[in-house]
Amino acid sequence: MRRRPVAIAALYAAALVVALFAVAPFAWMLLTSIKPDGEILRRTPSLWTGHPQFGRYADVMHAGFAVALRNSLVVATGTTVAGVAVAALAGYALARFDLPLRRSLLLMVMAVQMFPLVVLIIPLFVVMKALGLLDSWLGLILAYLSFTTPLAVWLLRSFFDTIPKDLEEAAMSDGATRFGAMVRVIFPLAGPGLAATAIFSFIAAWNEFLFALTFVKQENLRTLPVALSAFVGQQQADWGLIMAASVLFTVPVVLFFLAVHRRLTTGMVAGSVTG
Amino acid sequence: MGSRFDRRVLPWLLLTPALLVVFGLVVYPVGRTVWLSFRSAGLPYLASGQSRFVGLDNYRRLLTDAHLREVFVTTAVFGFACVAATMAVGLAVALLLNQPFRGRGLLGVLVLLPWAVPRVAAGVVWRWMFDDRYGLVNWALSHLGHDFTGFSWFNARLPAFIAVGVVVVWQSFPFIALSLLAGLQSIPPEVREAARMDGAGPLQMLRHVTLPMLRPLLLTLIVVSTIWDFKIFDQVYVMTGGGPYRSTELAAVTVWREAFARLHLGSAAALAVALFAVLLVMTIGYGRLAREEMAIR
């Protein structure tokens, strides 16, 4: 079927509008972060800069962002390692054994996806206060496990389901125990699934704001989103600095995200909807 | 196959850590919040665990306190408005990406970007975009006709909600668009071909063929985005802080404020439980609907 020139022009115009809407804030963030100070506060924004300067990234690090970056890395990595370890064991058990929990798992995952984190926050705060876990990395990691673990179990169970059972049965008839077969035969084969689940957990922990805001008051233990929001709250907002901070916070997860978004899509759909 | 240990004990050993996480960090806190919603609890509760049973008082407060009552309406209106806008934009982008044109693959990747940006960063960047004097938005709008120079988006309720809504839609349309695109591509070409032979134009095609075939998927996506948009916290906290005069507080923000700024832990818990209940009812309702659809087929 041939299309009229008007229709084709409209198509490209629409594509351009969508692309602008999607990318403009992202581009504006990058551009503001490297503009010289004098070019940022202009009534007529300059859409390009002839004098890019990257010094702000160093300034941001000195302004306390290096510490926040460290905290975020520790908390996100801790959440990922603990969550994936816990979920790999549970996912394997649910994939290979006929357990009564198999059916309620989906319900659990759906419920956790559904409910607002504010439902958990008061009791978690009280318990952490009693255990001295406020203002600590461990406290945040534990809090994050509440929402990363169920979905991770669900994702890994479906990965293990795709690996043929014959493989560990062969290993077991060669004398391996079930546990040995799981660790040495199945986990290595589930590598891509484990990696995708790990990245999903990392992103979720890296981005989380509500718990980080509530459970950590000490400035030197703040994670990136909390440090960033504190920057914005200051009286005279230095937008060049704030955008540099936003870039540092955003770029790592965008790269991770683009690497796994396909799996993430199916995971989210399965996790929040199926049934 | 395998020893008795392997069949009977091992599975439960493997599950134990996950069960501890789920019960300790999800089931217990939820139960505790429900319990707290029937009690009066303030600073003494945080300090030493003191609280008093007050029956349904906290829930009664949700209905009698003018601000809390308003928060419910605001959350619902804002939530559904965002869902409607997200679905409209998502559907439009999906239909666009379903057309053959040069650069379609590139657009498919570019559209992913907003989804990947952390919510707090998105709020911060858009706060700068909406800056009254130096923001890109006011400059662009002024060029499109109406003069927006110096217009301050965060001094009044409606503009502030529009700004927050734009961020919400910006972050959630990619998921909707890509899911709908997958749905569109699974419609058999013969169906469209047959409709075209019968003389259906593009709009008729959309209304009578495409949308009905996407109905189950559309329903699912509406429920998922409703759940997201009723829980919004980060964007509001970063962009408006709930202001001016608490007028842009949504339910999650109010729970947090009641609990950790005003130390009304009981009513905060009641509000959280009510929000949870609303989402639960919607999800169950959707589950029913989905099952009926299945039964019809």
Mind explaining what this structure looks like?
- The complex is a heterodimer of chains A (275) and B (297).
- Chain A contains 12 helices and no strands.
- Chain A is mostly helical and 275 residues long.
- Chain A has 2 domains: 1-53, no CATH class; 59-272, MetI-like (MetI-like fold, Orthogonal Bundle).
- The longest helix of chain A has 42 residues, at 55-96.
- Chain B is mostly helical and 297 residues long.
- Chain B has a domain at 72-266: MetI-like fold, CATH 1.10.3720.
- Helix content of chain B is 75%, strand content 1%.
- Chain B is built from 14 helices and 2 strands, in the order αβαβαααααααααααα.
- Chain B has helices at 4-36, 43-48, 57-64, 66-97, 104-110, 113-116, 119-129, 136-143, 157-185, 189-197, 202-229, 234-239, 251-261, 265-296; strands at 39-40, 52-53.
- Chain B has a two-stranded antiparallel sheet.
- In chain B, α4 runs parallel beside α9, α7 (119-129) crosses α9 and α13 (251-261) runs antiparallel to α14.
- The longest helix of chain B has 33 residues, at 4-36.
- Chain B starts with a helix and ends with a helix.
- The mean pLDDT of chain B is 90.
- At the A-B interface, α1, α3, α4, α5 and α6 of A face α1, α4, α5, α6 and α7 of B.
Low-confidence runs of chain A:
267-275
- Rg on CA atoms of chain B, Å: 24 Å
The major β-sheet of chain B equals:
2 strands, antiparallel
Biggest interface reads: A-B, 93 and 95 residues
Percent of residues of chain A in helical segments?
over 70%
Which strand order does the major sheet of chain B show? 1-2
